[in-house]
Design a protein that fits this description.
alpha+beta, 5-stranded antiparallel beta sheet, 4-stranded antiparallel beta sheet, 9 strands, about 35% helix, about 30% strand
Length: about 160
């Protein structure tokens, strides 16, 4: 009897690249002419997966958000993981924006992924396990076909395939 092979479908950013992009954003805000003389704060809350941007309101805050997006894209972190909140003014013409870093696959999206895997007609089994989907089957060729099929479709989130066994 052949051994079952499996892999997990997940949606989470590369944390090391995300932190590198935040460091690059901090360095750029310290050296760029249009940020000079402004007190800019960029904080990463690893427990809640949130980035807090605090700067003067208006064009400086907009430029800061653009720089963060550029650095994330350059480091290979998809902008689909970032959800920018509304600027919250808090005196002295300053504002704070909370950027939520999304991770995991929501249940409704997981069900859509599961339906798409079943629609491929391959001999694989897809199970929802928390915020990931475990795909298992006897043939590694079938598993690779599932990976290609999922990459070809757009589900509104970035997918990664981990734990191939």
């Amino acid at each position: 009897m052949a051994k079952e092979s499996s892999f997990d479908v997940v949606s989470e950013p590369d944390l090391a690249e995300l932190i590198n992009a935040l460091d690059q954003t901090r360095r750029e805000t310290a050296t760029r002419y249009d940020f000079r003389g402004h007190d800019i704060v960029i904080e990463w809350d690893a427990a809640q997966y949130k980035i807090r941007l605090d700067s003067p309101a208006g064009m400086v805050l907009d430029s800061l958000q653009n720089v963060l997006g550029e650095r994330m894209a350059r480091r290979g972190v998809s902008l689909r993981f970032l959800e920018f909140g509304e600027p919250e003014p808090h005196g002295m013409d300053r504002a704070t924006v909370v950027v939520t870093v999304k991770k995991g696959i929501e249940t409704s999206q997981a069900k859509n992924l599961q339906k798409a895997i079943r629609a491929m007609g391959l001999k694989v089994d897809a199970q929802i396990q928390g915020d990931a989907i475990r795909v298992s089957g006897k043939s590694k060729d079938d598993l690779q076909a599932v990976m290609q099929g999922l990459r070809a479709q757009d589900f509104g989130i970035d997918l990664a395939f981990v734990n191939l066994r």
